[in-house]
């Protein structure tokens, strides 16, 4: 039993040290491993399988809105990166440079893509000629590189996997529509599939993407009360089009600039799943994203007929969910700990007595609730329970979000809230960057977004400077 | 009509200039575009969609054999690349080097992965401890970079997409089994899905992978009689394990080295599809891999009811195949040319007279054969025809391969065959590298493989030096 306990004990409690708990979970649930390459990680099978499910579901939703997948080069020539002024200023300090190819120095340095706006622009410049060629609604799944100084698994690493959509439209209205549409695809995906409620809103100019006219964001709230930016969608207007010369001939034979958008979502979301739903026993995966939804664990598996019956059960469940069986020679207690650590939503326990009684036991990962069900009806019961878990996990996350939003009417209240509460702080803002900078410097909270659906004016004056307020802002400490 | 003709005329005939025909097809079928990054290309939607289908089908076949997907870093520290002597010699001359991260020079150069054996070894070194941890059967889908001097779309580019499997096993036998298993997965996939027959065999030592004990290959024969290496599977024995120190404790508590394999297949296969099946009207896609299998083209679409009926037909076909409808204002002739250029296996023509007669016309892309079918039975007919096309394309490719294999019994016959015939040349070999090198230098033909299933000794002496022969070799000019 000493060995069995070890697995669970090895995890730091989240209330004691949330950061250490997080690191323990990513390692013990075998999602990642560190590598010889500083700041880069290995996505192990259990981690990558979550990403595969994210890809599959998101890609399906993208394609329903007319998105087509493409693949652009990994490298960006320095001169191309420099074409849009704000963009290069935002990214140049954190890119990796290739200076040698084979045995020769390159004539021009190539950066490893930190994002691919410049490549798509360079492509659209030639590919778009007429209004008939529009819109272009392209996306790519790839990895990007940003030379971060401090890294944490999934949340910030020098290389990460993501998708980046890049679109070109005839009009400003269409570009705006697409920007909002994709933000909503992200938000719906997070809520419906990952059971993560999000606040949808606009970034302030200080926090928006380098080169964008407007950046929309979805912000999730982690278990520790910190915000996590979980997906962003940018409207570029015709800024990049002018920098790159992307023009089309309209129906009246006039040359016009296209209007562009981009939108991205990354493996960071796996960090969000962990920090939204996890507990002191490890990962808790929402059923819709879990690579394994049900683990069958035979009890007294050496007894005659148990393994056969368990295998038969697995075979039946395979038709309705993603199921595995743990037939290793570990003890049941050890297997339970592993299944819990890996966040598998349901475990099915079945021993000789259960078989005799024609039943098995379903144990929920999220609440640990046990239900004895008849073997006759097990497929239906498992499906119902998976749906129920998904629903309950979202409801709990929503309740947590709702009770973690605090109002601040002046700077004293604001500072108190930042130090004493864990969550979003709603506060009015005058619109000046100076106030945002002061708040960040003095409290470490940043403006997360100006919400779309929360239009309440909770005060008439800026929470920082006291001047007339323009916008309601969600502030918070963030990952 | 002038405009319509242009599309077809713009393609060079394959008999006039096969290389130019190939370049024309990849561009006109909108598979790729060139970029500002020398030697790198854009995979456009029509090209990427083929790769997505390859991925989907191959990934399914991999997982059936127990493969799990992971993701390793893009970068390899120079010291890691250098750990296995043969491997670094093979790859170092053609890698791209990152020397700067952010604003700082790196202390150690990082190469952009040309292949990831060294990263997997570095990972297995820590991840594998006991026989219980074996086997590891991992794969990743990613892009790799090789700084080629001369590039051609799909066939040879500085960056390309591929999958690379990397496995670790307790015994040499298991590693050998896996090496053969994956080669057969590749071969079956090529034959069953891409309708490309392949020769399965072993590479000579000269042609094997840098660091491998044995390399197995599948070699396809393109329309012009040149060979295309289409997938390779390598048995590393315990060479990498010794270089990297990958050891496990066996059941008797003895430390042992693991035995490893790797196997890869890339976007090069899209080049194979083009050159195996294409014709002077463009691409011809086998139905099982075609992103769009059927194109509905309404005739006289401005006539009342035609578009509605065509749309209704598309809706019905959607349930049994991947179908699109071309409702643009181009003429039918123009649409036919486009559908042919893109290699869509079936087009369905339907005009007012067809509707009146309750029928439509199915036109095969591969043979141009037309069949009038009743609308009542159209779903079945289309499905049958897709299967028939797949079968016929494979049969034709097989016949082409069979009639393109020539025997040479001595060096005169060999040289004559290389200059006068287009295809594989079967010739006996003494086993000496000197003969391989002489043949390559004097004839430009290389040893493609020592076949597994063709054991016939067609002579007693080496086709080059006349000394006693050891092996039958397939020789040929290759891409």
Structural class of chain A: alpha+beta
Molecular shape of chain A: globular
Q: For the CA atoms, what is the radius of gyration of chain A?
A: 25 Å
Distance between the termini of chain A: 38 Å
Name the assembly state. Answer: homodimer
Strand order of the largest sheet of chain A: 3-7-8-14-11-10-9-22-23-21-20
Annotation field: number of helices of chain A: 15
Question: Care to describe what's here?
Answer:
- Two copies of one chain form a homodimer.
- Chain A has 479 residues and is of the alpha+beta class.
- Helix content of chain A is 36%, strand content 27%.
- Chain A is built from 15 helices and 23 strands.
- In chain A, strands 3-7-8-14-11-10-9-22-23-21-20 form an eleven-stranded mixed β-sheet, sandwiched between helices. A five-stranded mixed β-sheet of chain A has the order 16-15-17-18-19, with helices on both faces.
- In chain A, helix 1 runs parallel beside helix 11 and helix 3 crosses helix 7 (172-192).
- The longest helix of chain A has 25 residues, at 378-402.
- Chain A is globular, with a radius of gyration of 25 Å.
- The two termini of chain A are 38 Å apart.
- The relative contact order of chain A is 0.11.
- The model of chain A is unreliable at 1-5 (pLDDT under 50).
- Strand 5 of chain A pairs antiparallel with strand 5 (96-101) of chain B.
Structure in a nutshell:
2 copies of one chain form a homodimer. By secondary structure, chain A is of the alpha+beta class.
Could you list some keywords that capture this structure?
homodimer; about 475 residues; alpha+beta; five-stranded mixed beta sheet; 15 helices; 23 strands; about 35% helix; globular; disordered N terminus
